[in-house]
Amino acid sequence: MGARKKISAEKRKEALKTMYFAKLQNVPTSPRKMRLVADMIRGMEVNRALGVLKFSSKEASARVEKLLRSAIANWEQKNERKAESGELFVTKIYVDGGATLKRMRPAPQGRGYRIRKRSNHVTLFVDSKNTNDNQN
User: Fold this and answer.
1) CA 133/CA 128 separation, integer angstroms
2) pLDDT above 80: residue 136
3) Domain harbouring 30, CATH code
4) Which of 34, 135, 59, 131 is nearest to 89 (CA)?
5) Domains held by the chain: number
6) Is the pLDDT of residue 1 over 90?
7) CA 59 to each of CA 4, 27, 67, 76: distance values in angstroms, whole numbers, following the listed order
8) How far is Cα 60 from Cα 130, in angstroms, rounded to an integer?
9) Cβ within 8 Å of residue 54, ≥6 positions away
10) Cα angle vertex 22, ends 91, 63, to 5°?
């Protein structure tokens, strides 16, 4: 690794120490389906987002709910206090594509159709409203 690359990697690591986030990797649903759920809660207050996810009929919402609870716990761990109602917000959430498994499905006349079983990675950031105001 070159010197400049190493320095920028160390800066990125230091910046992540001040952020409160949780990651979920290799989720076996397509990124498109997961983005629908991510768009529902982006920018919401965490207690409201948990309610939306709990009563959503989408299968991906259960996974995102668990991820959000993990991000809240990470925030509480780093700040050494409990999160109060209306304090934390989902600042950023993004869904990236993961590995794609390629499978074959039997098709008529001896052919085979390719099936792509997609997966994704979800990263969710939470933060309090007053820290967001200071940064902007």
Assistant:
1) 9
2) no
3) 3.90.470.10
4) 131
5) 1
6) no
7) 43, 11, 14, 27
8) 30
9) 61, 65
10) 95
pLDDT value at residue 135: 56
pLDDT digits (tens, 9 = 90+) for 19-38: 999 999 999 999 999 999 99
Q: Measure the CA–CA gap between 104 and 85, rounded to whole angstroms.
A: 49
Q: Which residue has the tokens 């991000």?
A: 71
Residue 61 lies in a domain: yes
Give 3-state DSSP helix, strand, coil % of the chain, rounded to 5.
Answer: 50, 30, 25
Domain that includes residue 68, residue range: 21-135
Do 76 and 82 form a contact (C-beta atoms < 8 A)? yes
Structure tokens given for 43: 């920018």
Whether residue 107 lies inside any domain: the answer is: yes
The pTM of the full predicted model, rounded to 2 decimals, is 0.86
Look up tokens 């390629």; give the residue: 102
3 state SS of 69: helix
